[in-house]
Amino acid sequence: MVYVKWFFILAVWGLVAAVLHYTLPQHDVVRITDTYETRVDYGENALFWASESPGMATDLQGRDVFFIQSRLTDGRPMIYRNEDTGWGWPPYFKFDSANLQADAADLKSTQEAPRWVVVRHYGWRNELLSIYPNAVHLRLAAGPEERIVPWLNIVILVLLAALVWGVWVRWRRFRRRRLDPVLEEMGDSMADVSDGVAERLARLRRWWKNEPG
């Protein structure tokens, strides 16, 4: 039972960590190589695509999506999708995917004359599932070695940890003051009932032994 309890706890916290890692903003320093728009038909990875842009008709099969091709500072390719999040989840309230695509096209550069760009995005890149992080903001970088301190993520994680700690402390106080006395009383009552049943069974056995044969 202890193993089941710890498996459940680890599974819950693993899920929370995965949601936070997917949702919180991340930053890459890249060189943009190309931009394009293509039709995407949803499949098993539909969960990892944004909802329809506000004001557009809903197509459950798919739609045209902007993409931004780039190279990381170590030369590895990185492709971003560029979709509006609208009023949905995650709460980036992004409505300017067309403008962002124009900015990305304007920031394209070659390997001989690179222009380094900081891309703020959320999500994961997975070739097997064909999922892409969603770019939400672009700006010129100071250089390929620029380091970005994720202050927003730090603040959110600290606040979340404080919230979890506060809820945990209050739950322990509530349990100690309200639940534990009730559970203890219920345990005493069950023990009394069990003792009474045991005593009656003992009397019954003594009567059965003394019953003439």
UniProtKB/TrEMBL annotation:
Pfam families attached to this UniProt entry: DUF1523
TM annotation in the entry: 148-169
Superkingdom: Bacteria
Keywords: Membrane, Transmembrane, Transmembrane helix
This protein's record includes keyword Transmembrane: yes
InterPro entries tied to this protein: Phage_phiNM3_A0EWY4
Name of the protein in its database record: DUF1523 family protein
Protein's organism: Rhodosalinus sediminis
